[in-house]
Design a protein that fits this description.
- The protein is an alpha/beta fold.
- Helix content is 42%, strand content 19%.
- The protein contains 17 helices and 22 strands.
- The structure holds nicotinamide-adenine-dinucleotide.
- Nicotinamide-adenine-dinucleotide (NAD) binds next to helix 9 and helix 10.
Length: 509
């Protein structure tokens, strides 16, 4: 099928999938019951800014019902044999795979992310459930060598109902990333998707509900609440029955959630923002480095937490490297997200586009050069913005310090290794860092010196599920991936058993 035919087919299929959401607003799902609100929000289509669908507004009373449903279902799910939990998670993975095209089309339409990337959303989501299905039976921790009087053993128990709050960028993948380990650990969940992109969260809830029904398990094991962060999200973080919050979003929202959760001593697990450096030394494999720098800032519309939004380029290759960047940037195809040829789609929302555009003014104020992009194009009512490169920037400028979260790269030059490390670490964030050099010793030195939770050397963001994912400084608390995420949703418990012969201290004799 030609690319044009595929585009037409995508548009037609997406329209027919959207039909059900045009008939009725995207609802909450509480204890298996579909709960529609009278208060509705508009969800806008990023490619036109017309109303895509209506969304239930949720709010505190909806959260209260969902938290109670999750609390009621918790003992059943916690006490289920782990092999059964594993079976449920595998069934969810299979159901996700069965609805892969629907997930890809609706995710692309809802978020503006190019379909070429969203085609992998279901596969990656299913992989999360399959991976954590295997971990479900690994809760036991170990036994310490017995002393003369006692044997100690430690175990892990699920923490209780967990609130999952997700952002609008790649929402399906991120929701599965949180939900799979939480369910595998034996926790029940209440999920609140972002109000700008709620469709795939709804599909996930529907999939999980189908599996729970077939397995004869309580529907309250997984609940879905809709609405605004400052209403529904806040209520979730404050609810006493919710024992932990797994949050992905902006660092400022993370601070607000910490304050909101403080009165109930909420456990928090945060994946937050980044301003990730990619350091290109003059001994790097230039062609591979160029491909990786372009991919890591301009794929996924630059709306990716690990995007390499600051390019630190050694002075001796700075002009050549930035000139080659400009040449390639001019060829990037910006267009409708459902067109298979599109490399950058519209940004999520007009409000977000205004924020991204405002950094062009910041660049000019800071005497940086707008070497590519910097304009809204195509100008057809959608939130389109050409991939942008700021050169001759200083690391102190707002364009180098703040997370822009769009297809915008700030290029800064450095003289030597020490300066590269100083610039790389000179921001509030510490999520990821990328290093390009053919010098192995330098690669190790710089990797150790960077304040970031994840470092990739001569590589783009290649993920391996068992490895820890997360950030230092303002970029997060805790780690996703592997057993790191799994243990987040559990409390460790030590049990000491006496052999019964040792004397016990006596009082009141
Ligand atoms: P955001 O913080 O504005 O919103 C995220 C979620 O939090 C939404 O569901 C929102 O409704 C909710 N929320 C907002 N205010 C709240 C409050 N007071 N209480 C409870 N919930 C509240 O983030 P965003 O703009 O949707 O997403 C983009 C951000 O997410 C970027 O900063 C990006 O770096 C970050 N992110 C980080 C990772 C990571 O793994 N580190 C991954 C993806 C995205």
């Amino acid at each position: 099928m030609s690319s044009t035919d595929q585009f037409d087919r995508n548009l037609k299929d997406a329209e027919s999938l959207l039909e059900r959401f045009r008939q009725s607003a995207v609802p909450n799902i509480i204890g298996g019951e579909v709960v529609a609100d009278e208060n509705l929000l508009d969800v806008l289509d990023p490619s036109t800014n017309e109303v895509l669908c209506k969304l239930s507004r949720g709010g505190a009373s909806v959260v209260d019902r969902a938290a109670k449903a999750a609390m009621e279902a918790f003992p059943v799910w916690r006490d289920l044999p782990t092999a059964r939990r594993e079976k449920v998670l595998v069934a969810i993975a299979e159901a996700i795979e069965g609805r892969a095209r629907e997930i890809a089309l609706l995710e692309s339409k809802d978020t503006g992310q190019p379909i070429r990337y969203m085609e992998k959303a279901a596969e990656r989501g299913a992989a999360n459930f399959r991976y954590y299905a295997k971990m479900a039976s690994k809760a036991a921790d170990g036994v310490s060598s017995p002393t003369a009087t006692h044997v100690n053993y430690t175990t892990r128990v699920p923490i209780g109902p967990v609130g999952i709050i997700t952002p609008w960028n790649t929402p399906f993948m991120l929701s599965t990333w949180k939900m799979a380990p939480a369910l595998a650990a034996g926790c029940t969940v209440v999920h609140k998707p972002a109000e700008w992109s709620p469709l795939s969260g709804f599909l996930l809830a529907e999939i999980v509900q189908d599996v729970l029904r077939k397995e004869g398990l309580p529907a309250g094991i997984a609940n879905l609440v809709q609405g605004l962060g400052e209403e529904t999200g806040k209520a979730l973080t404050e609810h006493p029955d919710i024992k932990a919050i797994a949050f992905v979003g902006e660092s400022a929202t993370g601070s607000a959630i910490m304050a909101q959760g403080a009165p109930t001593l909420k456990r928090v697990h945060f994946e937050l923002g980044g301003k990730n450096p990619v350091i290109v030394f003059d001994d790097a494999d230039m062609d591979r480095a160029l491909d990786a720098v372009l991919f890591m800032i301009y794929s996924l519309n630059g709306q990716r937490c690990t995007s390499s939004s600051r390019a630190l380029i050694q002075a001796s290759i700075y002009d050549e490297f930035t000139a080659r960047l400009v040449e390639r940037i001019e060829r990037i195809k910006v267009g409708d997200p459902l067109d298979p040829a599109t490399e950058i789609g519209p940004l999520i929302h007009a409000e977000h586009l205004r924020k991204v555009v405002s950094y062009v003014g910041c660049a000019e104020e800071a005497n940086a050069t707008v070497a590519a992009g910097g304009r809204c194009e195509p100008d057809n009512g959608g939130n389109y913005f050409r991939p942008t490169l700021f050169t001759k920037a200083s690391n102190d400028a707002a364009i180098a310090q703040e997370e822009i979260f769009g297809p915008v790269l700030t290029a800064i030059s450095f003289a030597d290794e020490a300066e590269a490390v100083r610039l790389a670490n000179g921001v509030a964030y510490g999520l990821a860092g990328y290093i390009w050099t053919e010098n192995t010793g330098r690669a190790h030195r710089v990797a150790h010196a960077l304040d970031a939770g994840m470092i990739w050397v001569n590589s783009e963001n290649v993920r391996h599920l068992p490895m820890p994912f997360g950030g230092m400084k303002a970029s997060g608390i805790g780690r996703d991936g592997g057993e790191y995420a799994f243990k987040t949703y559990m409390e460790q418990k030590n049990i000491a058993i006496s052999f019964g012969k040792a004397g016990v201290p006596r009082i009141g004799v």
